[in-house]
């Protein structure tokens, strides 16, 4: 990795969760308390809830694509696009917990736990990004509901970022290389001089590598399968380890 000029990050599971995606955090919280609830039942409740929250219709059929919040090609509602991170977490949790027959008290405990953890990660990562801001162009690409910019404002990341690309706003989702190319164009940096950092293999590593970028896979403490090691240049157990792989300015 030579002459790196830009560091581009995924949001959910990367900046707010050190390698654990929203979906996994939600399932782990429930499974620890109700091990009788299967992963299949959870995934079914999650899919119906996401489509109902974002699109206003839980009957839409779609295949979950790793790293995506929405069905490919879907356009999120104006309501979803305005929600804060906590409002989004709560709205999704309401649907999942009702569908699984779980208590509102447990739902509230989950939302508090999730948002506290996300806020702590975002606070720590903001401090870290400040140390990189003077040397590198920074950006975020997220498969989200149209509210990534609002979340970056909410957690004071926006002043550090050269661009924020949201799949719903752009109308293109990872791993489509065009979403990465849009960020690179906004930053004025070629793919060979940029690193994409994310927690999803299929959305982040495959997408970033196919776009010609260097890739850093944040696995955290999760066991993640890597179908093709050629797609991953750097593997991280903690986001801040990336600093050790960057060339000296």
Outline the fold blueprint.
Elements: E1 6-9, H1 22-33, H2 39-55, H3 78-82, H4 85-99, H5 104-133, E2 137-142, H6 148-154, E3 163-166, H7 167-170, H8 177-187, E4 194-198, H9 201-210, E5 214-218, E6 234-236
Parallel strand pairs: 1-2, 1-4, 2-3, 4-5, 5-6
Would you give the CATH topology of the largest domain? Answer: Rossmann fold
Give the count of helical stretches.
9
CATH superfamily of the largest domain: HAD superfamily/HAD-like
Mean pLDDT: 91
Number of strands: 6
Question: What integer value in Å does the Rg equal?
Answer: 17 Å
First-last Cα distance: 12 Å
Could you list some keywords that capture this structure?
6 strands, alpha/beta, 249 residues, 2 domains, 11% strand, 45% helix, Rossmann fold, 6-stranded parallel beta sheet, 9 helices
Give an overview of the whole structure.
- With 249 residues, this protein is α/β, with parallel strands linked by helices.
- The protein folds into two domains: 6-20 and 118-245, Rossmann fold, CATH 3.40.50.1000; 22-117, no CATH class.
- 45% of the residues lie in helices and 11% in strands.
- The protein has nine helices and six strands, in the order E-H-H-H-H-H-E-H-E-H-H-E-H-E-E.
- The protein has helices at 22-33, 39-55, 78-82, 85-99, 104-133, 148-154, 167-170, 177-187, 201-210, and strands at 6-9, 137-142, 163-166, 194-198, 214-218, 234-236.
- Strands 3-2-1-4-5-6 form a six-stranded parallel sheet, sandwiched between helices.
- Helix 6 links the parallel strand 2 (137-142) and strand 3.
- Helix 2 (39-55) packs across helix 4 (85-99) and helix 4 packs antiparallel against helix 5 (104-133).
- The relative contact order is 0.19.
């Amino acid at each position: 990795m030579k002459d790196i000029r830009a560091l581009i990050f995924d949001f959910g599971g990367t900046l707010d969760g050190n390698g654990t995606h929203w979906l996994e955090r939600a399932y782990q919280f429930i499974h620890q308390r109700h091990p009788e609830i299967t992963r299949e039942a959870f995934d079914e409740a999650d899919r119906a809830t996401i489509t109902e929250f974002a699109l206003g219709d839980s009957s839409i059929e779609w295949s979950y694509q790793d790293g995506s919040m929405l069905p490919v090609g879907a356009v999120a509602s104006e309501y979803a696009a305005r929600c804060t991170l906590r409002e989004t977490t709560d709205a999704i949790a309401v649907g999942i917990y009702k569908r699984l027959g779980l208590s509102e008290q447990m739902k509230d405990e989950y939302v508090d736990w999730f948002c506290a953890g996300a806020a702590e990660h975002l606070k720590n990562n903001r401090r870290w990004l400040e140390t990189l801001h003077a040397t590198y162009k920074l950006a975020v690409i997220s498969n989200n509901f149209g509210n990534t910019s609002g979340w970056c404002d909410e957690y004071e990341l926006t002043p550090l970022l050269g661009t924020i690309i949201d799949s719903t706003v752009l109308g293109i989702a990872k791993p489509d290389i065009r979403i990465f190319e849009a960020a690179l164009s906004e930053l004025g940096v070629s793919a060979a001089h940029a690193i994409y950092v994310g927690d999803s293999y299929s959305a982040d590593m495959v997408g970033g590598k196919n776009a010609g970028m260097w890739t850093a896979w944040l696995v955290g403490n999760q066991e993640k399968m890597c179908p093709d090691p050629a797609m991953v240049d750097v593997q991280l157990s903690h986001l801040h380890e990336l600093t050790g792989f960057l060339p000296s300015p």
